[in-house]
Amino acid sequence: MKVPSSDLLKRIIKQKLREKGEVETQRELGALVQKELKKINPKLRVTPERVRRVAVEIPHVEVVVETRSGKKLPKVCPVCSSELVPIYMKNLTGKKVKTGFRCSKCSYRGDMKRFVPMRYTFRILKG
Ligand SMILES: [Zn+2]
To answer: In angstroms, what is the span from residue 39 Cα to ligand 1's centroid?
Structure first.
C-alpha cells in the first residue's frame, strides 16, 4: 500500500471535477479519485476523508458543506481543521449575540444548532 502525494491528488481532483462539473458526495469523489490512482499504481490508496481535506485546499474548487444538528460545538473546523471565526449579530435590543461560526480557511460555516457536516458538494470554479 502506498500513500499518494497531495499534489497528485489535487491534479486528479481537478481533472475529475472538470469532467463532471460537480460531484455530490465525499464518497463519490473519493471513489473517482481512487479509480484514477489505481490506473497509475494499483498500490496507491486514499480515503474519501483525505480527498476532501485536499480538495478544500484547491483554490479553484468550491466545497459546499451541508450541516445537521449536533450536541457538541466544534473547536476547530470539522472540514479542514483550521481555526473557526465566530459570527455575531445584533439582536433587537442592540446586544451582540453569537449566532454561529465560520472557518477561516474553507467554506464551512455553522450556526448554534446545525454545525455537523452531513454532506459535501464539490464544484470546479471557472477561470
Ligand atoms: Zn475549514
So the answer is: 30
Distance 79 CA to ligand 1 centre (A): 5
For ligand 1, the distance from its centroid to the CA atom of residue 107, given in whole angstroms, is: 6
- Per residue in 76-126, pLDDT (tens digit) is 999 999 999 999 999 889 999 999 999 999 989 999 999 999 999 999 997
Kindly give the distance from the C-alpha atom of residue 95 to the centroid of ligand 1, in angstroms, as a whole number. 28
Q: Which amino acid does the sequence have at 95?
A: K
pTM: 0.86
Domain ranges of the chain: 6-124
CA 90 – CA 34 distance, rounded (Å): 46
User: Helix, strand, or coil here: 114?
Assistant: strand
> Do 120 and 27 meet the contact criterion of CB atoms below 8 Å apart?
no
Distance 10 CA to ligand 1 centre (A): 17
